[in-house]
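In keeping with the milestone schedule agreed at the kick-off meeting, the structural modelling team has produced records for the first pair of proteins. Each record is given below as a sequence line and a structure-token line. The laboratory manager (R.T.) confirmed that both were archived under the project's standard naming scheme.
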Amino acid sequence: MEYVDYLGNVTRFAVGLVNTPASVPGDAEMLTEHEVAAPDAAELAPVLKLIREALGQIVDGIPADAVDALLRRYPPRMHLSDHDGADHPHIHFARNGEEPVRWIGQTVGAALAHVATGDPGLTLGRCAADGCGNFFVDQSKNRTRRFCSNTCASRTTVAAYRARNRV
């Protein structure tokens, strides 16, 4: 696994958490892979608020104070992991089996610090569809993605077509 792929996976995990908070967590596979139990929704709410704020600050290009807050509240415990094989070590920001909210705070906070500084080869965006506002990770070559899903893109295209054809 390349490091940017790991950062992309963690960032997509964070986006999934804030875009679909009713289905906590957004990516149970990542938690299972790292031996982390599913978090309690009430306990997760404060960190989700902070993650949502951090994503918004990064997308809006303003100082990412919420990323700093995540790092202060959930300092990463960096270590090398070889769960992809001894020939492919990469940095993890929290220990497997950590308490769920702490693991999420440590892992997401550290990954978003990389994103906020422009370090990885990925870009965050906010959906351009009216009324959506979901975040997305754009790892396309030209970084021109505008929508969180094909559904939002299609809905916007159909609305524009209908608006042009009104008599």
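The second protein of the pair:
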Amino acid sequence: MIKEAIKFLQDLSIRPNERFVDSVDESGVKRTFVIDNLGNHNEIRPLISRAAEPLEVNTLTGMIGYIKANLEKQQANFYLQVFDERTVHLKGVLDVEGRRETLVTAKAIIPKFHYEHFHQTEELIIALQSKFTPTSDREVLLKVVGNVQEEDVRQTGDTGFAQAVTIKTGIASADDVLVPNPVTLAPYRTFLEVNQPTSEFIFRMKKGPTGAIFEADGGAWRNQAIANVRDYLEEKLKEEIKNGKVTIIA
């Protein structure tokens, strides 16, 4: 009986329209709370529609197609984040909960090549032709690797920068040549729609004969790859960037 009376008095003391309290937090965000019969308060959060998981594509063309189709979030603005040379995220702006939705992720499919590993000449020739874009130094390496005559690559005169090898230069002739170093190559290392960044490599040969390629630019090519992806997206999304619908971050 006493419990019911207290509840009755509490119900009388707080009118229905007084159970809702609006406030603004230190970040300037408006928040609404509801007070129950016991004086406890709970926040009323707005209904937020957020993607459970991002759509995954493997090309920048797919990402651009999604943005231009404008099928979802028509009134929303987006950030295109070039996360690294192989990954681009399409993200929304911060919602009221301080979260940023990821709608699409583009992940480049890159052919694998084992750097710092000595490959047999046939394997290396195939890799140079299928996993590297044409450059003058690539053609030189193909000529050297494809025409090596001796099983034991000579170490005499090896300065650490160049090696001497014997290659076939005619039907019945062979000459000693210096293996070029360093060489400028452009492997497939980012999205195929953009120019592959060139960088310097150290090329070495040894008994077998076998050859290996060592990266020699400290990873600086990644910055160039990211810039190439950014420039490509800016070119293809000129109108969306101009209208403020898309902002590119790289």
